[in-house]
Specification:
Length: about 450
């Protein structure tokens, strides 16, 4: 009997190489990337000439992966790696550092503009179609870059800066390239400062609900209020919701913030006349959280607020992240009598399809159409079409952003029943809202009220 062949020995060099290599693409991995940067920094210790690094992320890779399957996704990543490797000159390096994230090192790039141009070339190379069996797929990519200027910057610092620039690029839109700047660093520090202050404020219960009236346009009688979060920090002063709401969304605070504001809002609204409803906005991330419905119902039970007096507003953008999860949450809320409204209608990408897939009780016409209703014929026709559609679907309608009597009159002429905007009242705290109600609901007579 022949003895079994001795197993091949794996040398220390082979083991080391595997530790620095991405198994799927054959490119270097994060360890290789850091090793290359650290070696370059050491070489330039006596004369720290600039060099550039960058991080490139494939836009929309997950939907393609879901559509074509995992194997096809891996094949696309291998094709991406081949294209990037072929685009590198003899001095440059490309590595794979995440699922669909690649990092590159340009030792001979000395300026922000040169880094931007070379990275744009990479994105252009990746935009050509990919063969996946008998089908083709297209991808775009976004990238962030940073430049090394002094020995104080480590490989980790450079990568963090490039990731910050990448985040900014993805917020800008697909296919963008952003190079890290000092201004970006200051903005990032400010965001972190606001985030820390917001976390403390939410834990201490310092974010307050304000309420803006929603009226019957023909009688000007108040029929409900929309809840809007307001925050004044002891150090920062008043912080705009346009600033702190996106930060709460991005940094994972929005769930706790939303529950705090809803609890305070429903406690305040218990003292309102029982025919008034409370409208409350859900964020996109809450529409992918399966606990959202239970959290809302728990708050209503604790505060004793009738679910039938609550309206939940959701945006089409929120629906698009995970339509299946959003549909389940909407159905759970409507099952207990909570009404659901589609906010900012007309600004999304597939509104008519969403109206068919979801059952909404109300639709809110975006303020952009209302602002131009008096002097823009397309806006006028769009509003007329929305109103006719909602009548056919049996949905209520509220027009947002009404600031002038002429706008309100035109909307009444078109048959719009509900309105909201500064013409009828600015957002006020709970005490001021009670004062508003006493002033404007003394009698049922028609009154054109303003706060």
């Amino acid at each position: 009997m022949q003895p079994a062949p001795a197993p091949e020995r794996t040398t220390t060099a082979d083991q080391s190489d595997y530790a620095f290599t991405d198994a799927l693409t054959g490119l270097g991995n994060m360890r290789r990337f850091f090793d290359k940067i650290n070696r370059l920094i050491e070489e330039r210790a006596d004369d720290p000439a600039p060099f550039a690094i960058g991080v490139l992320d494939l836009d929309g890779f997950k939907p393609i992966n879901d559509l074509f399957g995992r194997a096809a996704g891996d094949e696309i990543l291998q094709q991406v790696a081949m294209r990037l490797r072929a685009a590198m000159d003899s001095n440059s390096t490309v590595t794979r550092i995440g699922a669909d994230e690649f990092a590159f090192l340009f030792p001979l790039v000395f300026s922000e503009e040169a880094a931007r141009e070379k990275t744009r070339l990479l994105i252009e190379i990746l935009s050509a179609p990919y063969d996946v069996g008998q089908r083709t797929a297209r991808l775009s990519a976004s990238a962030g870059c940073s430049l090394y200027y002094s020995e104080e910057e480590t490989s980790e610092v450079l990568l963090n800066k490039a990731e910050t620039a990448l985040y900014q690029a993805k917020r800008t839109g697909r296919g963008a390239v952003v190079v890290y700047t000092r201004e970006m660093e200051e903005a990032a520090k400010r965001v972190t400062h606001i985030e820390q202050a917001l976390r403390r404020a939410v834990a201490a219960g310092e974010v307050e609900p304000h309420f803006q009236p929603i009226v019957d346009l023909e009688t000007r009688r108040t029929v409900g209020f929309e809840t809007l979060a307001r925050w004044t920090d002891r150090d920062l002063g008043p912080v705009s919701p346009g600033i702190f709401i996106p930060i709460a969304e991005e940094r994972g605070i929005i769930g706790q913030l939303s529950q705090l504001v809803l609890r305070k809002a429903t406690e305040a609204a218990r003292d309102w006349p029982k025919d008034l409803f409370l409208s409350f906005n859900l964020s996109p991330s809450q529409l992918v959280d399966h606990n959202t419905g239970l959290q809302i119902l728990s708050i209503l039970e604790r505060t004793g607020f009738d679910p039938r007096r609550l309206e939940i507003e959701i945006t089409e953008t929120g629906l698009m992240n995970d339509p299946t999860s959003a549909r389940r949450i909407v159905e759970d809320l409507r099952r207990v009598g909570i009404r659901v409204s589609l906010d900012d209608f007309g600004t999304g990408q597939s509104s008519l399809g969403r109206l068919r897939e979801f059952h909404f009780d109300k639709l809110k016409i975006d303020r952009a159409f209302v602002a131009s209703i008096l002097d823009d014929r397309p806006s006028e026709h769009i509003i007329r079409a929305i109103l006719a559609m909602c009548e056919g679907l049996g949905m209520d309608v509220v027009a947002e952003g009404i600031e002038a009597e002429a706008q309100a009159d035109r909307l009444v002429q078109f048959g719009c029943a509900g309105g909201q905007g500064y013409l009828f009242g600015r957002p006020c705290n709970a005490d001021a809202t009670l004062g508003y109600l006493r002033q404007n609901n003394e009698s049922p007579a028609q009154r054109k009220a303003s706060v």
